[in-house]
Amino acid sequence: MKPSNTNMKQTILLAATKLITENGIKNTSLADIAKAVGISKGTLYYHYASKDDIICEIADSHLKIITGAVLNCVQNANTEHPKDEIIKSILDKISAIEGTGRVHMYLICEAITANESLRERIKIHYMDWRTTLKDEIKKTFHDDDESSDALSFLLVSIVDGLVVQSLLKTEKIPFEEIATFLINHWC
Amino acid sequence: MKPSNTNMKQTILLAATKLITENGIKNTSLADIAKAVGISKGTLYYHYASKDDIICEIADSHLKIITGAVLNCVQNANTEHPKDEIIKSILDKISAIEGTGRVHMYLICEAITANESLRERIKIHYMDWRTTLKDEIKKTFHDDDESSDALSFLLVSIVDGLVVQSLLKTEKIPFEEIATFLINHWC
Amino acid sequence: MKPSNTNMKQTILLAATKLITENGIKNTSLADIAKAVGISKGTLYYHYASKDDIICEIADSHLKIITGAVLNCVQNANTEHPKDEIIKSILDKISAIEGTGRVHMYLICEAITANESLRERIKIHYMDWRTTLKDEIKKTFHDDDESSDALSFLLVSIVDGLVVQSLLKTEKIPFEEIATFLINHWC
Amino acid sequence: MKPSNTNMKQTILLAATKLITENGIKNTSLADIAKAVGISKGTLYYHYASKDDIICEIADSHLKIITGAVLNCVQNANTEHPKDEIIKSILDKISAIEGTGRVHMYLICEAITANESLRERIKIHYMDWRTTLKDEIKKTFHDDDESSDALSFLLVSIVDGLVVQSLLKTEKIPFEEIATFLINHWC
DNA sequence: CATGAATGAGGGTTCATTCAT
DNA sequence: CATGAATGAACCCTCATTCAT
After folding, report:
1. A5, C44, C175, D48: which could join D53 in a potential S-S bond, CB 3.0 to 4.6 Å?
2. pTM
3. What superkingdom does the record give (chains A, B, C, D) (predicted)?
4. Exposed / middle / buried, residue C79 (Cβ in 10 Å: 0-12, 13-18, 19+)
5. Hey, what domains does chain A have and what are their CATH numbers?
6. D40 beta carbon < 7 A from strand F?
């Protein structure tokens, strides 16, 4: 049985994500993707209207995942030391993202550089992500509005910033110490 | 005296930086740069061996500048409330970087994606930058080694992360509140 | 009774004519036509063997219509001043054809360029058209054979030529003055 | 000695004109032109910015030629029977244009269909052509303004219309009789 | 009857790079 | 030193056509 239409779209998306993760957006051609899937370029265009279309779907999928992950972290932290856990699990995530982090950076660069509609989409997800975080912080820790706001911006920034450093492989990032430091000062 | 070799190289570098800041690396062609400088592509190749060569020099120049700026921030903070000042002046920098921030992101993306030797160079600068920060923190605030380390990673991350958000123009970043929050919790 | 085969062919033809009128032959894809009709490309191929096939049928239909129109003009002119009326009604037609004129030009270009069998078909209709015109001229005005011949060629040319100018929208065509001029010199 | 830059542009233009005359605009690819000249597609783009650019230059060149030709006809007719001569020489031109006529039709179709700036250019040349004709008619034959206007429109139309018929090769066009007819009725 | 899926050849265009002059 | 000219590979995209279901 051949893969259904939906399956084919999924297959293409997976292959595209993999290639882009490895080589970046500009260094991944539609020919590469088609070859990886084992179809012709024409077929690619049957399923997606353009390269931008593919990138947008990757962005959607990627940003939904990280929004979900963050939300998950925060919501599962209803124990005695919730902040500890949040910080630890976020840092755990970062230290394990290699692949996801790369796509993340590529999408951001693409959004900044070239693709108006992609920027719109990423923007929305980003705001969604941060707002979710802020609301949960406020609800869980009874912080005032301004503090929650500041903290949410900081957490998002720290994630992005650590992703950058981890991708550059500058040096081994001391996630343990960072976690300890954050817990000591924020909890 | 004719405009020296060095001058021409500088002129090219400035024009290239400007164009890349505006349009990104992949969207800036050597033809664009040559036209902006008012020379031919051939002449460009006389001064620089390749596009990558130009990008590497831009990266060098850019990273030297920001390393210097950060060092400056930290060293001039020998007053009564040094941490306050550091944090404030770093955030001031971020909120005003527009152009610098863009090149920064483009260079990082390029380094991650394609350019092995660029990655090496950026790596070195990043480590330099962070180590400087850490040493100053340790010296100035008498923090222990692990804390200084963690804090330096965090500060660098926050800078990069806020740059990302500011470039995406997701929402107005509340630099004031963020500064207050950081000062309250770290000082 | 289900919509008959003939009906579907008609529907397709109408949609295709509309699209080609608006965008030209090369700029109208079979996908466009299929979408306009609300069927799949596969179905299109069930009804017509090829794109050329569709174009030929459009040409047939279009040329039948204008031949009929011209014939009508000439035959209804059995009054006191027949030539006046013919000229006026032909120019009226031209000044109102916008759409028809476009298809006309597109078909002619296509015929000249690429489509051997289309050229044959258009050729036949053109000869039919001109001969009809000539015979009517001869019969109605008792002109000699050579004059009728020349005049029929001229009339056909003037139609095509004015269509060209009207489509190029070069300037407002003074149909009134042209009619007057023709009437003064030919009647 | 290699052909100079100007020569190369001319060479390209000639080859392009030839191919387009034979096969039409849409059926002439840049690859075809490059191959005909014996250069790479890249080189083509070194000399011309786009396919449209090439077409526009062909249009310029073509329309300048026919405007000049018509002007020439009219101006050289300062003898006893000027109208006779004008009509005869115009018809002579038409009966001999085969190649020129094809480009003419292709350019017009292209202008109508697709190319805004090409349409502008052709428009201007067309108006130039007709106005020139009108002025000469008025000056030479002392016709009133409205008549000159009408006649100029008619002459241009007849040219375009006869070109169409001659390209369709419908039947042998009786240029002699047409000339006679026109002379009898207009002179 | 009708379709969704696939194709492959070809389209125009871009660009880093080379090199004779 | 400087350049204009040339290149060729790669890029994204279009589309008439085919065919199993």
Report:
1. D48
2. 0.85
3. Bacteria
4. exposed
5. 1-48 (1.10.10.60), 55-186 (1.10.357.10)
6. yes
